Amino acid sequence: xxxxxGVLLVVAAVVVMQGSEGEEPAVTGMSTTTTATSTxxxxxxxxxxxxxxxTEGWKTCRNEEYGYEFKFPGEWKIYGEDARxxxxxxxxxYFVRESEECNGEYVLFSTTQxxxxxxxxxxxxxxxxxxxxxxxxxxxxxTLTTEKSHEARQKRFVLSxxxxxxxxxxxxxxxxxxxxxxxxxxxxxxxxVQNVEQNTTITTLLSxxxxxxxxxxxxxxxxx
Length: 224
Fold this sequence. Notes:
This protein has 224 residues and is mainly beta. The protein has a single domain, classed as Protein Transport Mog1p, Chain A (3-Layer(aba) Sandwich), CATH 3.40.1000. 8% of the residues lie in helices and 30% in strands. It has 3 helices and 14 strands. The strands form 4 sheets. Strands 5-7-9-13-12-11-10 form a 7-stranded antiparallel sheet, with no helix packed on it. Strands 3-4-14 form a 3-stranded antiparallel sheet. It starts with a strand and ends in a 13-residue tail after the last strand. The model is unreliable at 1-35 and 215-224 (pLDDT under 50).
């Protein structure tokens, strides 16, 4: 474990432990305290990320195929679809190079060189996009909020002007968090480690996130 650029690194969005491609991670140390109902959550004032630090020297992650863009610190390294090896006998893939740009459904960010690094390990931050018909079990934010109400601390969040959900597991600075948003017919899941509301680098990064095509919050169903 190390800290670089104000962000906690655990030497892994999505993840504590990422399983085979597309699988949701197994999360440990979850809070068992019941949180507010989904109706209560979406009646609250949302968290709207704001720029807290300068983005001078930052790079741009632009994923044309999956329709999103944001800025990230210049020292971070990108590992996308083109950085992975062919599957081994167990079906696992490994990073064999850095990516020059964001690409693929799963993009990982790290401040360290990850050549030969298993794809199912941990990262500084990940972005995972689920296409319709994948294993992602939740049809909308209302369902996700209801099903996870006993496991995660949940808050209303705005990502690129799109109604979204912030879920945090574990307590303190080293919490695991997910931001989930339905847009453009896809499910977007951003994952990181360390308190998202207290980390100025992550807050600033999220303030620059936007979808490349017009999206509608109507894609999210928050009614019974």
